[in-house]
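Minutes, project check-in
Item: structure for the 575-residue chain
Input as provided by the requester:
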Amino acid sequence: MRLLVFFLFPIFLFAEISEEKLLQRINYHLVIEDYKSAVLESREALDHFPTSKEIWISYINALSKDHQEALAIETVKNFFSEFKEEALNREVLEDLGWGILNKGSQSMQYSIRLISLVGSYLTNDVRAVSILSNLMKDSNAILRSVALQLACRYPDEPLRRQVAKLLDDEKVWLVRLEVINTVGAMRIKEKDSKLKEIIASEKSTFEEKANAIKAIINIYDKASIEEIKVLAKSPKAGLRQLSSELASHFRVKEAKEDILSLVQDPIADVRISALNAIGLFYIDFCSLKEIEQIVSLCEKDSDAAVSITASWLATVANLKTGPQKLKEWLFNDFPDNRRLAAGALAKCVNRAMPLAKEIIKDSLDPFVKANVAIGLIGQRVNVKECCDIIFDLLQNEKQLWMIDNRKNSLFEVLCPSQLRHIDQIPHYPEAIDQMTRLNLFSILAVMEDTRSYDAIKSFLKQKSWGITGVAAATLLQEGDSEALQIVRQLLKEDDKVVRVQAALVLAFLGKDETVIPILENAYFEAERDMKLYILEALGHIAEIESYPFFVKVLNEPFQALRVVDASSIVQAINR
């Protein structure tokens, strides 16, 4: 009798344990991150409560966190089969999605960690913070750099502390640039003195100083006249340049004399910054004689960018010498100088209409003409002729393009690309080229140029819209509604390639949900890279009602596709 009781006691004991108690035990294991025990407890609980939806969910969560991805996916499918009337369970899909993303972020493959990083960022979910934090400490410098770029959307205190620490500790130049940018974007005010050290240091590169100046402007709420005076008289060129940037940005009228004195600074970047500040703000507080003296001095500058900026200032001030000097630069022997002058003219085209009209007729440099044409279109002057110039450039110039503002941040210059490949954005020069060209197509569409439809159609057919999630996260902006309407018409084209490319553009730039069926239908016949782009696009726009498609994609044999799919699932749930 005692022996019988001995064998039956555990059975009676377990029978008395309620579903609630079992769920509590599973949760205890999850809280202490003992995921393997959580899996075992979940399996035993399912044996006794096979119809408990809560235990199924806990089991999937435990499998996901234990990185048993394949079994978790299979269990999700079984869950949907078991609870058909409640197949759309956000918690199940979200747990699975984060399980896949977390496993991917710990992959030995750099590319999978990168995809997981970007996928986590795009979810805009607080659970992305841990992945961002971990990959900020990754051994791969590129991954650290990307994690810093993406961390700005998540200003959580743990990330802020880590970024502040990296500003002191990071040694890799590429990553240091991103640390500086992120300190500014997160407005970490306690690091402003460190940023000034970077600006003042002779060991800092030009890029580090420029980024630090932008970061300080982002951090500051205002700038005092006392601080600007101190910076303007600093022995460090970077701090003198910072004084001009702060004075014009915060419109500190009292700093006028200090800024005017900097036009004679021995460093070209400081002179350019001072001229910009005068043209943007202090011109209203300067006499005509003061402007003439500044222009007379700087137009003869040995640095072309300084002289061109002085000519721009003269043109803004309605001095006759402005357009005259700009014209000389517009026909200069060096293409870079001609195009910078064209960018300057485009910035003040309303003050130099006769010169602008002359340039679009007589210049032999197509990029000079295009830059000036863009400025004239902005003023709605000679629109037909200017559209012809832009259309001809799009048709005839096949090299990669970019918008350059490195010589003077005020002047956005359309020119042949000088960008190099960087690991954190695959096909980076090509991605910039695509965006630059699409912006020009947008101008044609907005101006209701009848050729814009066929031009965009041809562009989409010839170009693969292969912009990955990193580029989408860091480059893409909302598309112009009128230009996107032209692209939308291409969805009716017979050519499948054109339809899919148009759908991708509308998804990334227009967040157009009507393209979801086109992308889903194209997915299973597409090549692997195109599948990645389609999944990213669907994550950008899809609602959670697309879950049957997302669940089906989880059968893919490639981890990269499953990771992007997981990100899209979480994005759709959070939308």
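Outcome recorded: The two ends are 62 Å apart (CA to CA).
No further action items on this chain.
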